[in-house]
Design brief:
CATH superfamily: NAD(P)-binding Rossmann-like Domain
Number of domains: 1
Radius of gyration: 18 Å
Bound molecules: nicotinamide-adenine-dinucleotide
Number of helices: 10
Shape: globular
Largest sheet: 7 strands, parallel
Order of helices and strands: HEHEHEHEHEHEHHEHH
CATH topology: Rossmann fold
Number of strands: 7
Strand order of the largest sheet: 3-2-1-4-5-6-7
CATH architecture: 3-Layer(aba) Sandwich
Length: 285
C-alpha cells in the first residue's frame, strides 16, 4: 500500500475545475487510490466525462456543476457533500483560468472573472468547507493551486500572475491559521511547472483582447512540446499532499529556479527586467 492509499483510501475528495487538465488528473489519481471523488466543474459535460472515466476504471465518482466564482455555490456544495457523504478528507481548490493581454485592454468582465475564479474561488472554497471539517474533527487536507508563476513576473499575463502571488500568500497564512486554531487540517500550496492541460486552448481566451491570440497560441505550443504529462504530474502532487508537504510541485529544479530568481530579485532590490525567455514568448525578438 502506498502512503497516499494509506492516508486517503476510503475518504472523500472534492476537486474544483476537475473537468480537464490538472483537476482531471488529480481526480483520476484520487479515484485510483480508493477515494470517492466529487468531480466539480463549471462545465457539466466535462465533469460527467471525468466521473464516468473513474467509475469505468473501477473507482467511485460523481459529477456536479459548480462555478467557483459564486461563493454561494461553494457553500451549497459543501453542505450537500457533507449531508450525503460525510466528512471531506481532501479538498483541492484547483479551478483557475489564464487571461492574456495588456492590463488596459482586458475588459472589466474578464478581469473580474479571472480574479473571482483564481482568487475568490479558492478563498470561498476554504471558507465553505473548513467549518464542516472542524465539526467532523478528523484529519483533513486542503491543497490550493498556485503556480511557479507565484514567484515571478510575466507581462500580459498580469491578471493570472497577480492571482497566483495572492494564492501563494493565502496558503502560507492559512497554513499558520490552522496552527493558531489547533485544527487537524494540513494545507499545501501546489506550484506546478508546465503540465499539459487545456488552459491555453483558443476557446478559453474568449473575452481577451485581439492581440492575445498570438501569445496564447505560442503558450499552447510550448505546453504541448514541454509540458509534463498530466497523469504523471498529478501522481507526484497527490503523493506530496498525502505526505503533508506544504510545497507540492511536479518539477523541483524548475521550482528552485523560480524561487531562487525571486529571492535574488528581492534581495538585490532589482528592477523588473524582460529576460530572454519572456521576450521569446512575447515574440519580441
Ligand atoms: N497547466 C499548467 O501548466 C499549470 C501551471 C501552473 C498552475 N496551473 C494551475 O492549475 C489549475 C488547473 O489549470 P489547468 O492548466 O488544468 O487548466 P484547464 O483549463 O485545463 O482546466 C481548468 C478547468 O477549470 C474549469 N473552470 C473554469 N472556470 C471555472 C469556474 N468558474 N468554476 C469551476 N470550474 C471552472 C474549466 O472548465 C476546466 O475544466 C489552475 O489553477 C492553474 O492556474 C496550471
Amino acid at each position: 500500500m502506498t502512503e497516499e492509499e494509506r492516508v486517503f483510501s476510503g475518504g472523500v475528495a472534492v476537486i474544483t475545475g476537475a473537468g480537464a487538465g490538472i483537476g482531471m488528473g488529480l481526480a483520476r489519481r484520487c479515484g485510483e487510490i480508493g477515494m470517492t471523488v466529487i468531480v466539480t466543474d463549471i462545465d457539466q459535460a466535462r465533469a460527467d466525462a471525468v466521473a464516468a472515466g473513474i467509475v469505468a476504471a473501477g473507482g467511485k465518482a460523481e459529477a456536479i456543476r459548480v462555478d467557483v466564482s459564486r461563493p454561494e455555490a461553494l457553500d451549497a456544495l459543501a453542505q450537500d457533500i457533507v449531508d450525503r457523504h460525510g466528512a471531506v478528507r481532501l479538498l483541492i481548490n484547483n479551478a483557475g483560468i489564464e487571461t492574456l493581454g495588456f492590463t488596459w485592454e482586458i475588459p472589466v468582465e474578464r478581469w473580474e472573472t479571472t480574479l473571482n475564479v483564481n482568487i475568490h474561488g479558492i478563498v470561498h472554497g476554504v471558507r465553505a468547507f473548513v467549518p464542516h471539517m472542524l465539526r467532523a474533527g478528523q484529519e483533513a487536507w486542503i491543497a490550493n493551486l498556485a503556480s511557479i508563476g507565484a514567484f515571478g513576473q510575466m507581462p500580459t499575463q498580469t491578471a493570472y500572475i497577480m492571482s497566483k502571488h495572492a494564492i501563494q500568500a493565502f496558503s502560507e497564512c492559512l497554513y499558520l491559521e490552522m496552527q493558531v486554531a489547533g485544527a487537524p487540517i494540513h494545507v499545501s500550496s501546489v506550484v506546478p511547472a508546465m503540465v499539459k492541460s487545456s488552459i491555453f486552448d483558443a476557446e478559453a481566451g474568449k473575452g481577451e483582447p485581439d492581440g492575445a491570440a498570438r501569445h496564447r497560441a505560442v503558450m499552447a505550443q510550448m505546453m504541448a512540446a514541454h509540458g509534463m504529462e498530466t497523469d504523471e504530474a498529478c501522481r507526484r502532487f497527490i503523493a506530496k499532499i498525502a505526505a503533508g508537504e506544504f510545497w507540492v510541485d511536479n518539477d523541483p529544479p524548475v521550482t528552485a529556479q523560480s524561487v531562487d530568481g525571486r529571492i535574488a530579485f528581492l534581495a538585490g532590490r532589482e528592477k523588473p527586467a524582460l529576460n530572454e525567455t519572456t521576450r521569446q514568448l512575447l515574440g519580441l525578438n
